[in-house]
Amino acid sequence: MRRLICVAVAVINLLFFDAATKEMAFKFLRGEMPISVWDGFFNLAYVENRGCAWGMFQGQVWPLAVFAAFALAFLIWRRRDIFVVYPTKKWATVLTIIAEPLLYAGIIGNLIDRVVRGYVIDFLDFHWYEAYHFPCFNLADTYISVAAAFLVITSFLNDEKKRTKNKGYIMKLIVSIFLTFAVTLVSVASNHDALKVAVYVDKGSKGIGAVEWVRLIDESPEMKLKLVDGALVRAGALKDQDVLVMPGGWSKEQTALLGSEGCQIVKDFIRNGGGYIGTCAGICVLMDEPKHRLNIIPYESVGSLGLLYSRFDINEKGAKMLGVRQGIHKMRYNGGPILKPTTNNIEGAKFEVWGTYAFEASDRGKVKKSLNMCGAPAIIGGTYGKGKVFGVVAHPEYYDSTYYIIQGAFKYVSGKDVTFPKRLHKRGAVNVGFHTDRMYGVKTAENILALANSKDVNLIAIDKNMVFRRNLDYIDVFVYTVSIADVPANKSHKALIEDFLSRGGKVVFVGKDASREVPGVVASAGGEELIKTILSL
């Protein structure tokens, strides 16, 4: 009885320390960049673990909680077989005495987190510089791991003569050790679990940015891509996702295709803890305008400008939250909104300006000071309910030189690090230009992925501006996914296409007009057939 009382007191104290450290991590580390304690080896970093080791059972809170409860019940039921041994060394007895409260406290600590929070908070991040990160863990995980090690050690120090008196001891010990390690696996989360990311690719999401978002997330080893449109969102496609990416394009069409039901689903997704990243039109979707927006951020647009590769000033808060340097950063800009704060109080919304425009609006060389562009909000970050939101008026997804902005955004909204493999030119492959201006959708995105993943194709996203800049001179095949009737009527554009065809270039149409015979144009149904068609030209 005395030992049981001592065990109970020890468990209570251990649970207090575990809960206190998790609460401190939630209060001081949530939404912050990792704090380096030992440079290159140990950080304090906030991670929400909704599964178990190596990404298994993500989101299965109650099955994992029930498993832990059964494990705890079994350990208590068989405690004499597991924790009362007959060691040949006195210090081994001490190890078994220590192991019992550690194991109970570890299981109960993470069990409480799963039941109360719906996830386990991890914050201890040991790593070898940037080459390797050990799965992030917490004090409860440490309790379980230490207890498991002690049990293994004492199992080899048992007195042979006394062991025979305890029938079935060896089998029970094996079962207990297996169970202990199983619980340890359920308690330890990988900091590099696959992040489930949905990209909205309905017709409103168009342009090079939409293409690059699809390619980037598909290529990242830390992310799992899901393509969604308005109908899929309304059908529940966001339920199992961690982050929603809203690319550039035309925000009114994006929200129109979502419909009022889809817009509410997106709002609920963020409010309930989902992450959101929006670029250009993707930040417009969030704006405070009753008819055509989600009304999440307290900002409206007062105008926009054309295509530029220009400067943005990231302030101290933005630099800290994104893990980048404070000051001027260059990004591709193409018609993003010039934001102005509104006076409306949006319930559950807490947003800050992380960066501003560092250039003034101009038209044909004349400065348009009336737009008050320089110094206007350009990068917004914050929370809506339980979810985190990042929005930028520019396009950091266009060039690998600005991918670090995207990496910081994902770290902020999800708490996880992501990487993008270096994109190499494939020798001997066909250079395929992909027209991005008009039509977009899930099928188009699937065609993009088929081309991007083909070892025989170098995919190059091209919009009308790039056509006018003679980018067709560097490709072999130009692919349109729009209806032939929707090809730009601009005479200069058509003249450039005719010139491209006259010098041996090929044009492929995909979609509903694929069966129509057009002089100099090849038709394809898309997918694998598209690749075969291109390679046969």
Strand order of the largest sheet: 6-5-7-8-17-16-13-10-11
What sort of overall outline do the alpha carbons produce when their principal axes are compared?
elongated
The first-to-last residue Cα distance is 85 Å
Question: The biggest beta sheet, please?
Answer: 9 strands, mixed
Q: Whole-number average pLDDT? A: 80
Tally of contiguous helical segments: 17
CA-atom Rg in angstroms: 28 Å
Residue runs with pLDDT of under 50 for 5 or more positions: 161-168, 187-192
Give the percentage of residues in beta strands.
15-25%
Annotation, overall tally of beta strands = 22
Short description:
This protein has 17 helices and 22 strands.
Protein architecture, described:
The chain has a 9-stranded mixed beta sheet, sandwiched between helices. Helix 10 links the parallel strand 7 (243-246) and strand 8 (275-279). The chain has helices at 2-28, 61-77, 79-83, 90-116, 139-155, 160-163, 169-187, 208-219, 230-234, 251-271, 281-284, 316-322, 403-414, 442-452, 464-468, 491-502, 528-536; strands at 35-38, 42-49, 120-128, 132-133, 195-200, 223-228, 243-246, 275-279, 299-304, 307-314, 327-334, 337-341, 349-357, 362-363, 366-367, 377-384, 387-392, 430-435, 457-462, 477-480, 506-510, 521-524. Mean pLDDT is 80; it is low at 161-168 and 187-192. The chain is of the alpha/beta class and 537 residues long. The protein is elongated. Helices cover 40% and strands 23% of the residues. Helix 5 (139-155) runs antiparallel to helix 7 (169-187). The protein has 17 helices and 22 strands.
